[in-house]
Specification:
Radius of gyration: 25 Å
Strand order of the largest sheet: 1-4-5-6
Largest sheet: 4 strands, antiparallel
Distance between the termini: 102 Å
Strand content: 5-15%
Number of strands: 8
Order of helices and strands: HHHHEEEEEEEE
């Protein structure tokens, strides 16, 4: 008996191409959805991390009479470091660096970590003084690194020879008013923003030049006048909405921000008040500077760096000020 053709027939070339085309179409539809789901998941984790950071900061404040977590060692005073070379800082600038080195030595068990000259640890290392409240070791610490921050994740994961302090950075920045004066008082300057125009390089902070001026201050949560409207910390770059990974101070940037009341949300920078110049508090103008990313830390829209203003990093009035949800306070600036 002759078998029919249908019993042994396989796929024809056309049928196979149709199947491949359908599979490709499905992949094309699903991949963007999966990528968006991954981005949404990373954003959720980032915001959760920030909430944990806020809880740790509040716990620190409870144990230390309402003090906002910050570096506390002072120049000319003997520190409580167990390391002899870190016990007698000459001035406040050296004192906070000694404190950061002491924390790193104790946390890593590596007493050979050298003194770091010229280091300003309040920027990108603001989590170290409350490390015990974050509940994890330095390199395993997930709370202080955004899951979309590939730059710092790579720093933590890559093997290194010797000590590299950059491995312990955080993705989150803390407003300078949390550890310094709100603004200049008399001749006493405070921490502010600076670009060194003479050599064209960008610096994150300008340190006080006034002799005898305190380098940092221990501020208290009770000094915050509008906790739900004043930014405490923020992600330094927009990382959850595709490229470019722009700096927070670019008006179109959307980054997670944590308010002093512990709430966390994604905010559009242009919705914030423009801020002021802490060492010229009477000026109606905000802090202006050019931001230049380093390494693969972020992207610049302008090849020469982006001209930006400070927004909530330099809130008018410091801890007494308002960033979102209201007008700026009056610090004596001229009215238009």
């Amino acid at each position: 008996m002759r078998r029919t053709r249908s019993e042994n027939a396989g796929f024809t070339l056309i049928e196979l191409l149709v199947v491949i085309a359908i599979i490709a179409l499905l992949i094309g539809v699903l991949l963007p959805a999966l990528a968006k789901a991954r981005q949404t998941g990373k954003l959720a984790v980032c915001q959760s991390n920030y909430r944990q950071y806020g809880v740790a900061a509040a716990s620190y404040g409870t144990d230390f009479r309402g003090v906002i977590p910050s570096y506390s060692w002072r120049g000319g005073e003997r520190s409580d470091s167990p390391y002899p070379d870190l016990q007698f800082p000459e001035n406040d600038r050296i004192a906070v660096m000694f404190q950061a080195v002491s924390i790193l030595r104790e946390a890593t068990g590596d007493a050979s970590i050298p003194i770091q000259s010229g280091w300003t640890p309040m920027m990108l290392y603001n989590h170290l003084p409350m490390l015990d409240y974050l509940g994890a070791s330095l390199l395993d610490e997930k709370v202080t690194v955004c899951p979309a921050d590939e730059y710092r994740k790579e720093l933590r994961e890559q093997p290194v020879d010797g000590f590299n302090r950059s491995r312990y950075q955080t993705s989150f920045d803390i407003v300078p008013a949390a550890f310094s004066d709100d603004q200049k008082v008399g001749t006493r300057e405070t921490i502010s923003q600076l670009e060194l125009n003479s050599v064209g390089t960008y610096q994150n902070v300008r340190l006080p030049n006034t002799p005898g001026s305190p380098f940092v201050r221990q501020r208290k949560f009770l000094e915050v006048a509008y906790p739900s409207s004043k930014v405490y910390g923020y992600d330094t770059h927009q990382r959850h909405f595709g490229r470019p990974y722009i700096y927070f101070a670019i008006p179109d940037a959307r980054v997670p921000v944590m308010m002093f009341d512990g709430s966390v949300s994604v905010r559009l920078t242009r919705d914030a008040n423009p801020g002021f110049q802490p060492n010229d508090p009477g000026s109606p103008e905000p802090t202006r500077f050019r931001h230049r990313p380093f390494g693969i830390e972020g992207d610049a829209l302008d090849p020469g760096g982006d001209e930006v203003i400070g927004y909530y990093k330099w809130t008018r009035g410091g801890l007494r000020g308002i960033d979102f949800g209201g007008s700026e306070i009056n610090t004596g600036q001229p009215r238009p």
